[in-house]
Specification:
Structural class: alpha+beta
Oligomer: single chain
Largest sheet: 5 strands, mixed, barrel
Number of helices: 15
Strand content: 5-15%
Shape: rod-shaped
Distance between the termini: 88 Å
Helix content: 40-55%
Amino acid sequence: MEKKEKVNRSSVSEKWIPAVILMDLVVFPKTVTQFDIENKESIRAVETALLGDGKLFLLSEKDREDENSLISVPGEWMAAEKEIPFEDIFQPCGTLVKVTQILRSGNMIRVQAKALNRARWTKFDQTTEYAAVLLDVVEEPANPEDKKTREAVKREVLIAMQEYCGYNNRMDLLNSKQYKKIRNIAEMIDRMMEDLSLGSDARQKILEAVDTKERAKVFCGILREEISIDRERKSIFDEVGEKVEKGQREYLIREQISYLKDALGDEENSESEIAGYRKQVEELDASEEIKEKIEKHIRRLEQGGTYSPESAIDRSYVELLLELPWNKRIAGEGELLDIAHARNILDRDHYGLKDVKERVLEYLSVKSLTDKGQSPILCLIGPPGTGKTSIARSVAEATGKPYQRICLGGVRDEAEIRGHRKTYIGAMP
């Protein structure tokens, strides 16, 4: 890139205007503004303007996030020897103002100025102790000649302003400013933007929009976009607020439950019991489905309290599930049975009973060859002392399984074996 050459500002045919670069400040014509500056270059530009007709050009930098951004320190661009086109650094449109007053305070001055016109810079010079520009002053546009078009544009602008003020509870602003009395639509939009607390990017877009209809279109788009963004913001924070409120409500409820348990004197025992159940669930060698089922009943037991009618049912159910031998298999299970060995054990322990032995061996033979289908239940019938229990013990020894004896004498209701429904108080699982 070619090196920037020093510009001759003494040319009679060209009017060089001192320039000040501001951060996040966009000024509209026909308004009064004030700003503080403290870098030497900007102060020198203001002093130079006061030595002449008081005119000063205000512009801002473009938003640039790369390493060449110069916005970090105001006035740093004066000393930076970076070969960057001015068009890539500064906004194309700014505001021509007339300085009316300055106040000094140490190394800083406060400038008060009256904004005159929009202006576009055509040349930019930073080769001396302050920046200066050549300008094309932009005259404010007149209203559209067509009456219907003029009225339609004005109504659309007022409706957008009303929607924005209504959404943000600022109808007092809309009523107090009496925008309807401003005849020039472009001037009315500038006045509205000056009164609204919008960002510098939005204000810069309005400053660059010269045509009345284009300015109105940009203005309405900005306001409706602000409403959309704010609605999304409120939606997000409302959702967060609901979660926080729910968490606080649950915390208060848990604290109240804790207080009541403490008052009843059973908090420590209940909590230790629940903690013990949960520890057993963690150590249990069972599937996740089974653990979730047990955890469900533990939660019911925890929430129901010690004196709930269902607490005894849930406690018995949980204890039974924890005691069951989940995923525990006997060593050698699934291997082929030795039928000859089983026959020897049956003959050793019992004399006679040929039919019974043959039926047991038949059952063991089929069982050893296939695992498909449901296993039948052998039912041995006979008076006491005829060998029913000893046959079962011999079968257990032959198959290598532990022998379990359950006495059902006097049982007349199958529900006592199968278990009762939980709807009955005192039901057993």
